[in-house]
Write a structure and sequence with these properties.
The chain has three helices and no strands. By secondary structure, the chain is mainly α. It has one domain (2-70). α1 (2-25) packs antiparallel against α2 (39-51).
Length: 83
Amino acid sequence: QEHRARWRRNNAYAGKLCVQAVERLFPLAGGRGLGFDSAFQRGLRDVLAATSQNSMAWDVAAVTYGQQRFGAVLTDPRLFPGR
């Protein structure tokens, strides 16, 4: 369980950092970055789509890791496969 909680936390945090990076870079692309045929627009959509997955939810992953780390009752059912 500890490894899963840590992995989920790290995975979600990496996704959060990717979103922050793309959001900071997007204004630098200017008007060309707005077009649907823009590689930058495609990258933005890909990052946002990937991080909108349930497993990438930073708030849930951080709380779950904190619960695991401090011995609280775990509330994320994804840590218990087969139940």
